[in-house]
Amino acid sequence: MSAEFWGMGGYAVYVWGSFGAALVIYLWNVVAPHRRRRAILNRIAEAQGEE
Amino acid sequence: MNWTWFHRLASPPSFFRFAQRLAPWLGGLGLLLLVACWFGGLVLAPADYQQKDAFRIIYVHVPAAAVSLTLYVAMAVCGAITLIWRMKLAECVLIAIAPVGASFTALALITGMLWGKPMWGAYWVWDARLTAELVLLFLYLGVVGLNGAFDDARAAARACGLLAIVGAVNVPIVHFSVDWWNSLHQGATILKFGKPNISADMAWPLYCGLLGTYLWCAAAVLRRTQNELLLRERGTRWVRELGTELDGAADVS
Questions:
Q1: Which pLDDT belongs to residue A1?
Q2: Cα–Cα 20 to 30 A to B218, which of A18, B49, B67, B75?
Q3: Contact A28/B53, CB-based, under 8 Å?
Q4: CB contact under 8 A, B64 and A44
Q5: Nearest to A41 among B53, B219, B247 (CB)
Q6: Which residues of A touch B104 (CB under 8 A)?
Q7: Do B239 and A43 touch (CB under 8 A)?
């Protein structure tokens, strides 16, 4: 990848800032529900263990 | 018309399995489209003659803004179903949409600010479009907060449903604000009648991004709906049976 590409014609901060923020939000929407599922399943498993 | 299939699908265990099968396909197809969008938008599309490379922010800003409105409409419809028919699945979907919608509304605002600074000279102006989108974020966060404030999940969902319906008045305000008031924000490029104001080599990555983001959100909403179903039905037999089944597969799923 060239310096021209990463430079984005002087708008690098704005373009890469936007795409970076987007990457975080898109990934969060996969990771957060997945982690919550594991937490819920653990809770259910613990509750079953106590019975 | 025979509604048996609908009642069967809407029962928690059936919908859980349905979502379990569907979500990976939606997420996978969404990912392919998003990769195409980002590659097309960042590498293949030519720089705009006026905005130069800064216009590329459109590929994250417009899809985020589009889903922020569509998800709100879906949430308000679930709110109406919740209040009228007390349907459990609609309650779960309503609660599931709120954080997804909030995250993409925040993304639309952040990317809008990063686009506004080089083009307008300011990160933020109290413009009709921007202000209404900010109100949209507060409505989503209001639903998330309201849901957390109740101990009883069903009472929480009814309160959230009411807030979602009342807040729906903001959706047309966001959408038409650029036509109704003098705005710094530009008018519609694609989502309007007639020919879109964008050339084909710039347009196709945007269409990929829009469809990809919708699919990505649909997968996220299905996953969160599954979580709500598990939580509410944790005392039932289908969850106990599923719990042991999924627990073993938790690392691979």
A1: 60
A2: A18
A3: no
A4: no
A5: B247
A6: 25
A7: no
Interface residue B104 vs chain A (CB under 8 A): yes
* B103 contacts A19? CB cut-off 8 A: no
What is the per-residue DSSP string for B36-83? HHHHIIIIISPPBTTTBGGGGGHHHHHHHHHHHHHHHHHHHHHHHHHH
**CA pair distance B112, B25, nearest whole angstrom:** 30
d(CA B63, CA B41): 13
CA dist., res. B219 & res. B3, Å (int): 25
Indicate the domain borders of chain A.
3-50
Give residues 12 to 51 of A whose Cβ lies within 8 Å of B. Answer: 13-15, 17-19, 21-22, 25-26, 28-30, 32-34, 36-38, 40-41, 43-45, 47-48
Residue B52, beta-bridge partner list:
B48
Element spanning B19, H or E: helix B12-39
Q: What is the pLDDT of residue B251?
A: 47
pLDDT above 70: percentage of residues in chain B: 93
- pTM score, whole prediction: 0.92
- For residues B218 and B140, give the distance between their C-alpha atoms in angstroms, rounded to a whole number: 17
Q: What residues form DSSP beta bridges with B48?
A: B52
How far apart CA B127 and CA B121 sit, in angstroms, is 14
Span B10-37, pLDDT tens digits: 899 999 999 999 999 999 999 999 999 9
Give residue-wise pLDDT tens across range B156-191: 999 999 999 999 999 999 998 888 887 788 877 766
Cα-based distances in Å from B172 to A51, B81, B180: 52, 21, 11
pLDDT band at B243 (very low <50, low <70, confident <90, very high): low
Q: HSE (CB half, 13 Å, CA atoms) of B109?
A: 22
Q: What is the DSSP string of B116-164?
A: HHHHHS-S----HHHHHHHHHHHHHHHHHHHHHH-SSHHHHHHHHHHHH
